[in-house]
Amino acid sequence: MPSSDMSTSNQVAGHGSPTAVSAVDLRKSYGDKVVLDGIDLHIPAGSIFALLGPNGAGKTTAVKILSTLISPDPASGEIRVGGHDLASGAQAVRAAIGVTGQFSAVDGLITGEENMLLMADLHHLSKQEGRRITAELLERFDLVEASKKPASSYSGGMKRRLDIAMTLVGNPRIIFLDEPTTGLDPRSRHNMWGIIRELVNGGVTVFLTTQYLEEADELADRIAVLNDGKIAAEGTADELKRLIPGGHVRLRFADPAAYESAALALGEVTRDDESLSLQIPSDGTQRELRAILDWLDSEGIEADELTVHTPDLDDVFFALTGPANVPNQSNQSNQVNQSKETVR
Question: What value does the mean pLDDT take over residues 89-113?
Fold first, then answer.
């Protein structure tokens, strides 16, 4: 079994934390079709990284390259997984990782327990060790009662749990989950989220691709959006949401006189006379919210309710992968500055 210790020497310049996966100028083409056009990745150990993108964007290709299933183009830069160079240490990379694809690797003709024991054999574990780990994982994934039944009789959620349990037989420190909840009902999807969180709490790094934006928002420490073979944007969910215009602070008043005073003082704001509320453009940052509160205090205006509204990941996704480009950094700064001027 691979060691559970992630080497701290494998660090990218400028980053202080141990690196589970790093890639510089990752490229992959099939003939004239460019799938990955020079992407860079830095994924700290013990974190969840989500790669988003429309169908055909290259998410699965990236997973296949990083898990040694296919080779990158020769023009690619250095790629390291689990502290090992992908080009010269592919076998060591395979020993450090686990992969769960879009489609279950479970053999439906045999039982859940037999699937687990087969995986233990593939990892060259002794029969005693294989049975011990199988029993532990079946219990951990709540599959003991179904373990003697053919896997073909399992529900979609049970098959996914068995799939991940099989992946964990080799004690990987990095797991690639390629759309792991596709086709699952909402309850099974939430159960899978809990399993993923438990893995990370145990020190495992998770590289997740998903079509469910809520899933990335819920789980990922960092998110990258892949479009046309390039990383269109990367950051935390909150950072990505702030890229998109439309964020605002909503002030609601119970007193019509206070509402009119605030509307007059603020000037260019969106009014809702029916609900006595005002909408102020905002990027949702703590600094800007404090500026709004300070301005209200200085004017002696007291709102009965203040709520912050920011674009969600759906807005981010459509802006980054649609025909219209997301505003660049300079435009972002202008929007923030303009909204600050408004509240002054």
Answer: 89
